Amino acid sequence: MSRRACPHPATPLLTGDPIAVGNRELIPVLRGKGTVRRGVSLSGNRVAAWGHGVVHARPIAIVVCDDERETYTPIPQTTRAAVVGACIAAIAVPFAALAVVYSIRKLVAAVRAASTARGYDQPEELP
């Protein structure tokens, strides 16, 4: 597997157990990150220690191994694209609404000015 196929080389990549399907072998590739916390307590003549860790793994690709070649197939991240699109829309929609309101106000002011210049705003005299 080439370095170009794996987008973030600094993040550790994990490979799962190979799965045999016919004459092919599928190997899942995961991007993993984890945290570990540990501590020690000394009180009097007692010693206590504790620790726990969390590992988060996200599937990023599947490697398909044939008799002839090895193919790297990335898994698209559609959720991230949808969230980014929603954020862009949430930022752009208020600005678009402001532009529409500004344009309408400008149009209304121009119509009022034109009607005043022609004398349409004077009340008609009643008989």
Written description of the protein model:
This protein is α+β, with helices and mostly antiparallel strands and 127 residues long. It folds into two domains: 1-75, no CATH class; 77-127. 31% of the residues lie in helices and 40% in strands. It is built from one helix and five strands. Strands 1, 2, 3, 4 and 5 form a five-stranded antiparallel beta sheet that branches. A hairpin with a 2-residue loop joins strand 3 and strand 4 (46-65). The longest helix has 40 residues, at 78-117.
Number of strands: 5
Please report the number of helical segments. 1
- Structural class based on helices, strands and sheet pairing: alpha+beta
Main beta-sheet annotation: 5 strands, antiparallel
Overall mean confidence score, pLDDT: 83
Head-to-tail CA distance between termini: 94 Å
N-to-C SSE string, H for helix and E for strand = EEEEEH
Quick overview:
The chain is an alpha+beta fold and 127 residues long. It has one helix at residues 78-117, and strands at 13-15, 19-21, 24-43, 46-65, 70-74. A hairpin with a 4-residue loop joins β4 and β5.
Provide keyphrases for this structure:
127 residues; alpha+beta; disordered N terminus; 5-stranded antiparallel beta sheet; single chain; elongated; 1 helix
SSE topology sketch:
Elements: E1 13-15, E2 19-21, E3 24-43, E4 46-65, E5 70-74, H1 78-117
